[in-house]
Amino acid sequence: MKIYTKTGDKGKTSLIGGRVPKDHLRVEAYGTIDELNAFIGKAASELDPAKFQDILKDLETIQHELFDCGGDLANVMKERKYKLQEASIEALEKRIDALSEELPPLKRFILPGGAPAAATLHIARTVTRRAERQVVKLMNSEEDVPAVVQKYLNRLSDYFFVAARAVNFRLNVKDVEYIRSGDVFR
């Protein structure tokens, strides 16, 4: 099987049910989700399975759910069945709560960084925010987009923030507070 098809050589790409220019908002949104998925793979490669089995399991689940998001965004057929469900958001919320319970309280903004995996999770958080902005832009352009994708991405960025802090905490790496921050978390 050849990996190249040459069908995109003129600047268009296939969706599920149509073709669009490669710079279409829809392609930008699911392309950013693909980029995010690669950063998750990088973060997973930086985690010790002995200390982070739970987070590694989360990351694998998230990678599958991001493929669902990408597929849902790429689907422009009239009759659609979306893969991503609200249950994925509820599961993320439970994991955010569980990870948060093991962390010291946060009062101020923190600088992204710390251990390599934590820094990569912070990158994943910011790429998630960009993907969410692109999905919102797509939704505002009158395109038909499942709202669950935007909501999932919103919650996912929160997960990455908490997961990055959990990685640092388990490795005894202190979060660095932004020095000009007042108390913003209560």
Describe this structure as you would to a colleague:
The chain has 186 residues and is mainly alpha-helical. It has one domain: Hypothetical Protein Ta1238, Chain: A, CATH 1.20.1200.10. The protein is 60% helix and 4% strand. A two-stranded antiparallel sheet has the order 1-2. A hairpin with a 2-residue loop joins strand 1 and strand 2. Helix 2 (49-74) runs antiparallel to helix 5 (147-170), helix 3 runs parallel beside helix 5 (147-170) and helix 4 runs antiparallel to helix 5. The longest helix is centred in the N-terminal third of the chain and has 26 residues, at 49-74. The N and C termini lie far apart (56 Å).
Biggest beta-sheet profile? 2 strands, antiparallel
Find the structural class using helix and strand composition: mainly alpha
Identify the strand order in the major beta sheet. 1-2
Number of domains: 1
Proportion in helices:
55-70%
The helix count comes to 5
Organism: Ureibacillus terrenus
Subunit structure: Homotrimer.
Enzyme class: transferase
Protein name: Corrinoid adenosyltransferase
